[in-house]
Amino acid sequence: MKIHRLETQLWLPRPRQQVFAFFAEPRNLERLTPAWLHFEFMTAVEGEVRQGTLLDYRLRLHGIPLRWQSEIAVWEPPERFVDRQTKGPYSMWVHEHTFDERDGGTLVGDRVDYAVPGGRLVQKFFVAPDLQRIFRYRRHVLEGIFESDARATVSEDDRR
Fold first, then answer.
1. Which of 13, 73, 123, 157 is at 20 to 30 A from 112, Cα to Cα?
2. Pairing assessment for the beta strands 40-41 and 92-102 based on DSSP bridges
3. What is the pTM of this model?
4. What percentage of the chain has pLDDT greater than the value 90?
5. ω before 26 within 30° of 0 (cis)?
6. Is residue 139 exposed (0-12), middle (13-18) or buried (19+ Cβ within 10 Å)?
C-alpha cells in the first residue's frame, strides 16, 4: 500500500485557545467543506469531543455517495488532535491537526497520511487534485472566519 502525505500550514492572527475551540466543534467541519462535496454531518455529539469520539458523515464525491466515519484517536487540547478514518473511501486516512503559538497568533498545521484504492492513476488524477482543492477552500474559509492576512503553505509527497 502506497502512503501519500499532504501537509499544510496556515498562520491565523488569533490566540491558540480560540482557534483550537473552533476546530474542537465537530459541526464546524461543515463550514470548512466545499459545497460540491454535499457534506452532511450525521452524528449528534453529546458533550465534549475526546479521544475515542466517533463522527459519522456522508458526502458525494464525483457523484458517488459515500459514508465516512472518523475516530478521534488523539485528543490533546489545545496543542493537537488526530482523527483517523474507521470507515470510508480511503484505504487509510490519518489526519493530525496541530496548533502552535507563533508570532502573536496560531500556526495551524495539518498532516494527512492516506492511501487510496485504485493505485497511482486514481491518486494522480482524482484524489490529489481534489485534496488540494479542498484544502485551498478550507484555507480561504479560515482566513475569512479569523479575518486574517494568513500565511499558508501546502506540500504533498509520497511515502511507501
1. 13
2. unpaired
3. 0.89
4. 82
5. no
6. buried
| Amino acid in position 57 | Y
Helix (H, G, I), strand (E, B) or coil at 147: coil
Rounded CA-CA distance 25/69 in Å is 16
Report pLDDT for 1: 86
| Distance in angstroms (rounded) separating the CA atoms of residues 151 and 40 | 29
Distance between CA atoms of residues 78 and 68, nearest Å: 25
Q: Note the pLDDT tens digit of each residue in 97-135.
A: 999 999 999 999 999 999 999 889 999 999 999 999 999
Judge whether 78 and 16 are in contact, CB under 8 Å: yes
Amino acid at 5: R
